[in-house]
């Protein structure tokens, strides 16, 4: 069976778990009616199933290549991108003034995730454009907006983000690319950038790079960084394509997966660029783009999880093996069920968390309420790290469900596993996400976390009559998490927080997942969703106990062992 | 820094954690003195570092290929195999009567693991031969032994095992290969086998296949299966090579990793074979080979973990990034330390468990004591599944430590991850291992498990004075595991055990790991091993709580959801 975008699951989530009701009451999103959202999901799902999923294998088998300085993309990718562009899916949440649909991020997240499950490597292209669109909307001059946004939203042009340099990965502040003022409103940008996703392609008329660089005399570190828009071709005022700019692709990386997405080393030689945001205000602008992209990358993980789950489920339904009851297929084996239900339950949890993050973004956009802003900020690293960890774990389990066939490339299960692996690394490694969660996102003394847990516990109380055991398990887990949160907040030495950041983030996601499943169970009493919730709460939620022990261990044990002892 | 076989770790384990003393007191292994074992580890380690590790990348970059029916192996593999053969490492534990060294499996396991860390795909070749040697030693006629064993032990010939057919993977009993009696002591074997590791090569004079097939009129299922030895070339009585036999390589698989190991589809067309063991006694003989191979595959996982850990450690020591204290390298970051210490601590735990399994095999060999036999049987699935899961998780973390570089193939970190992935699948998937543990290995009512836990708790009591917290944590975890074991044993419906088999196996390994680390701490008070034990017991051991909740959930929740609901 081919890929089927999880349209029903999103409809259920919007109806019962992470509702759109509050959003629809705002002026900003009043038009996102039930009819509209259902139609959009159906339409986007159709494209995913019919156009994108069929080219997924092409990306792996026929990777993007660099020929004479030109990037040739995988067969069918140009058509796939055209379908995404024509559907309006790039600019779903973009400003209607420039051709966008002005829809909530909740819907964009849903569609992005569905596209990721269909063809992860291709979906990364519009995701990069979306980040650029949002950065330009917030930080660019009106002239730049008027010139670039319509082209990016229509998909005639694509966007990239250029942060990393060989000596500056997670530590963006160490970058050495330079920019100098030409005195005519333009700058000349020089330097080398690595790991540039979709650094070039052969289907867009222009490729627009957002490049972090340092102006003369700028201070060291992130403070001294400015952001520049550097197009491959210099546009004329009417938006037509002008001269070739001083930017080129040096090479493409040979990667473990995601072969359909060209990962470029880019060279800028006195390339003409335009400042976006104020001088030395590059990081703020970049963070706009990164926050968007982090949620998007979380969605990539979840999409890959959905695709891998469906493939494994199909195999388990068809593969006859052993003394299985019922259908005689391996799905009747307890351990295969354990794997499939784990995959399904975690995918649902990660999806609900990501939508919850998107909801907070939308509510903040619509109302300006800072509590929603704080929630979005708090949930972003969780959505990114848990979404991608889930993608990796689910794809890995998908390989296992296939047995020996899983290790054979022709099956396609291994591709999901190889492709999704990078999502835990790019847009800030999952370790960076966890550090962000326990440091920056707890500068409020744990308030945003506490409000989330209040909500979890209030709902658990309301669910006690219907599901006493499940409600109690979620409530208890939330209390344990609250204690751990208070412990973290009380640590003056940030390193004591960092030492347990990754297990803490995962425990938070586990508890939120329990909350989401409990909500689903309440909306489907006696149905499949209640049963899935039981599986999750009974079997997966208890993982938080070990994680929280790990999270509150402090950094002593990490540094007790000396480097010499490690090397010995 | 290149790969350094973990010779010191093995010496420490043999001295303090999984001692060789009892073995040395037996007549069988009296010669395995301290001097001998140290010399062997040093010598084997040297070969791993200098000969095998340098060809590891070749396997990935220049996979084995099938050309005109002939398998061409990766550059340097022939020389690597020759070094293994010349060192005597294939027949380390084989009968000295046929050229073996008669050494304990503990040493063979150590050397196998060291070779796996150096070059996993090549090491699989001698591992296959070792399994065949053991099967022939136990089940073949004297004539076959005299003819084949010297050649296999010397490495002039290699061995394979042929179980799987397209419709018969984990369910071996479904196989359809046929054998008919020629009436002259030989049989003609026909059928197709898939996933045959090292099904052919260009460095051995002969390749000997152990093939499961069914004689005419044999009952269905595993009961009706016989085992045949089918060489590529029919040997003359003097051991020289005779006529080509009716066996050929149809194709090689295109795999996610382990490209250096040719995984063949084999075709048998009235190939001449010799019966090994009695007619319809094939499964018993095959189990000899499989038990050996399962421990060996566990060692492959641990070796890959060691290799991946070393590569990640080197990177973390060299890579400058962020505001790191001390050396300025990323190893100073808490989360990188968390990853490296997790990798190191789990590798040690898995290694100690595998050696403990080998010890039980050796003690049973030397004394015939059935308690040791039961222990070996109980520990084999744990050593296999936890060793390979650790290999996969550690290699995965190794990729993460490398950040963006981890996803780039040139780095080599991704290769570890891709190569080791199959170890959780072949020689019985890890799900099969777990089912074996909770069913066959608990037919004794949990006695073997209970004796292990008695030992864990007795040692914890002895460690209480020195390390009250650590000892108590291990003791408590053991008690929880004992309760879970009793719960499993009490389940009349095996499916209730299977439903939690994988988490139970992992919890058992977690607790045994705590035991091994506590022993290490006792032998190195105040030293690096005590510190590593603290890390493990404080941060990783608590994982057992969630696992044991999962293990005791029964199968109700797994089957509450119908297949229709899953597909919907």
Structural notes for this entry:
Two copies of one chain form a homodimer. Chain A contains 21 helices and eleven strands. The first copy, chain A, is α+β, with helices and mostly antiparallel strands. In chain A, strands 3, 4, 5, 6, 7, 10 and 11 form a seven-stranded mixed beta sheet that branches. In chain A, a hairpin with a 2-residue loop joins strand 1 and strand 2. The first copy, chain A, starts with 6 loop residues before the first helix and ends with a helix. At the A-B interface, helix 10, helix 11, helix 12, helix 13 and helix 17 of A face helix 10, helix 11, helix 12, helix 13 and helix 17 of B.
Largest interface: A-B, 93 and 94 residues
Count the beta strands of chain A.
11
Give the termini separation of chain A.
52 Å
In percent, how much strand structure appears in the residues of chain A? 5-15%
Secondary structure: helix percent of chain A: 55-70%
Based on secondary structure, the structural category of chain A is alpha+beta
Q: What coarse outline of chain A follows from CA principal-axis ratios?
A: globular
For the biggest sheet of chain A, the summary is:
7 strands, mixed
Rounded mean pLDDT score of chain A: 96
Q: Radius of gyration of chain A, Cα only, in angstroms?
A: 23 Å
Low-confidence stretches of chain A: none
Number of helices of chain A: 21
Oligomer: homodimer
């Amino acid at each position: 069976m081919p890929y089927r975008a999880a349209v029903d699951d999103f409809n259920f989530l919007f109806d019962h778990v992470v509702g759109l009701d509050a959003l629809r009451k705002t002026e900003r999103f009043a038009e996102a009616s039930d009819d509209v959202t259902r139609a959009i999901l159906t339409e986007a799902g159709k494209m995913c199933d019919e156009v994108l999923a069929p080219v997924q294998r092409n990306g792996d088998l026929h990777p993007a290549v660099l020929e004479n300085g030109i990037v040739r993309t995988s067969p069918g990718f140009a058509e796939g991108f055209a379908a995404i562009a024509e559907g309006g899916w790039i600019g779903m949440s973009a400003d209607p003034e420039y051709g966008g649909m002005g829809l909530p991020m909740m819907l964009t997240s849903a569609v992005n995730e569905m596209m990721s499950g269909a063809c992860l490597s291709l979906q990364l292209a519009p995701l990069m454009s979306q980040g650029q669109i949002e950065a330009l909307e917030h930080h660019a001059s009106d002239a730049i907006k008027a010139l670039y946004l319509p082209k990016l939203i229509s998909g005639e042009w694509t966007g990239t983000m250029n942060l990393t340099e060989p000596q500056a990965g997670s530590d963006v502040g160490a970058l050495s690319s330079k920019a100098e003022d030409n005195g005519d409103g333009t700058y000349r940008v020089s330097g080398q950038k690595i790991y540039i996703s979709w650094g070039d392609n052969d289907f867009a008329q222009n490729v627009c790079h957002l490049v972090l660089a340092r102006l003369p005399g700028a201070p060291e570190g992130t403070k001294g960084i400015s952001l520049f828009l550097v197009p491959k071709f210099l546009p004329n005022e009417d938006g037509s394509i002008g001269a070739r700019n001083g930017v080129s692709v040096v090479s493409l990386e040979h990667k473990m997966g995601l072969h359909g997405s060209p990962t470029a080393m880019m060279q800028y030689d006195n390339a003409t660029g335009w400042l976006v945001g104020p001088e030395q205000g590059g990081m703020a602008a970049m963070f706009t783009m990164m926050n968007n992209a982090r949620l998007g990358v979380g969605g990539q993980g979840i999409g890959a999880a959905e695709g891998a789950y469906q493939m494994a489920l199909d195999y388990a339904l068809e593969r006859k093996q052993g003394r299985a009851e019922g259908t005689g297929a391996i799905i009747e084996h307890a351990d295969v069920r354990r794997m499939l239900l784990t995959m399904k339950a975690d995918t649902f949890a990660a999806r609900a968390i990501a939508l919850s993050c998107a909801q907070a973004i939308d509510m903040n956009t619509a109302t300006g309420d800072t509590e929603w802003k704080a929630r979005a900020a708090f949930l972003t690293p969780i959505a990114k790290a848990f979404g991608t960890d889930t993608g990796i774990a689910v794809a890995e389990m998908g390989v296992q469900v296939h047995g020996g066939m899983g290790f054979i490339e022709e099956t396609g299960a291994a591709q999901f596993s190889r492709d999704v692996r990078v999502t835990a690394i790019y847009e800030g490694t999952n370790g960076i996400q966890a550090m962000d969660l326990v440091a920056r996102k707890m500068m409020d003394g744990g308030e945003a976390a506490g409000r989330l847990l209040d909500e979890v516990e209030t709902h658990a109380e309301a669910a006690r009559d219907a599901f006493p055991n499940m409600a109690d398990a979620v409530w208890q887990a939330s209390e344990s998490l609250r204690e751990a949160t208070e412990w973290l907040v009380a640590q003056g030495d940030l390193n004591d927080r960092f030492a347990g950041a990754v297990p803490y983030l995962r425990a938070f996601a586990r508890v939120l997942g329990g909350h989401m499943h409990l909500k689903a169970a309440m909306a489907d009493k006696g149905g499949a969703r209640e049963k899935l919730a039981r599986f999750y709460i009974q079997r997966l939620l208890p993982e938080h106990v070990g994680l929280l022990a790990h999270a509150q261990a402090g950094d002593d044990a990490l540094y007790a062992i000396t480097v010499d002892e490690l090397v010995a």
